[in-house]
């Protein structure tokens, strides 16, 4: 499924719709270039899941966690990883379990350590004013 996310309003509308399908145990991969909307999508997703606090980019911390009523959401940004094995230092096997939702930016950096996603979103910049999102539910 392809969705036009050229405006923040369009991305917000998609995040709201997408939030209704998120459940404990989901592993959601976010793929795309720098600045394509991955972190903004996660911030909007958390808003629609009922989180009211500040949502930070996990670029330097590798991950941030957010307690929600029905589960805990972990937001990982693997951009700065040197090797997939570094995921073991953050106890990835405890983060990825059936009780949590895990949203992962730059999942290709964890190849060989990360399990397959339940949902994958590809953020594509068509040009400087146009973006699209491709959803793959597995």
Written description of the protein model:
With 138 residues, the chain is α/β, with parallel strands linked by helices. The chain has one domain (2-83, 94-137): P-loop containing nucleotide triphosphate hydrolases (Rossmann fold), CATH 3.40.50. Helices cover 20% and strands 31% of the residues. It has a 7-stranded mixed β-sheet, covered by helices on one side. Helix 1 crosses helix 2. The model has no long low-confidence stretch (mean pLDDT 92).
* Largest sheet: number of strands, sense, barrel closure: 7 strands, mixed
Helix content: 10-25%
Indicate the mean pLDDT.
92
User: How many individual β-strands?
Assistant: 7
How many domains? The number is 1
Beta-strand percentage?
A: 25-35%
Blueprint (SSEs and pairs):
Elements: E1 2-4, H1 8-19, E2 27-32, H2 38-48, E3 63-67, E4 72-77, H3 92-95, E5 100-105, E6 119-127, E7 130-137
Helix pairs in contact: 1-2
Keywords:
138 residues; Rossmann fold; 3 helices; alpha/beta; 7-stranded mixed sheet
Short synopsis of the structure:
The chain has 138 residues and is an alpha/beta fold. It has a single domain, classed as 3-Layer(aba) Sandwich (Rossmann fold), CATH 3.40.50.300.
């Amino acid at each position: 499924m392809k969705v036009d996310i050229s405006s923040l309003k369009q991305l917000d509308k998609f995040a709201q719709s997408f939030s209704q399908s998120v459940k404990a145990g989901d592993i959601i991969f976010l793929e795309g270039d720098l600045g394509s909307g991955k972190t903004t999508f996660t911030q909007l997703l958390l808003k629609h899941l009922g989180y009211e606090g500040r949502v930070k980019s996990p670029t330097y911390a590798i991950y941030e966690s957010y307690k929600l009523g029905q589960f805990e959401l972990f937001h990982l940004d693997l951009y700065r990883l040197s090797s997939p094995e570094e995921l073991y230092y953050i106890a990835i096997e405890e983060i990825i379990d059936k009780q949590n939702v895990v949203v992962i930016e730059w999942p290709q950096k964890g190849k060989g350590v990360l399990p397959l996603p339940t949902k994958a979103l590809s953020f594509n910049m068509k040009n400087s004013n146009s973006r699209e999102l491709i959803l793959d539910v597995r």
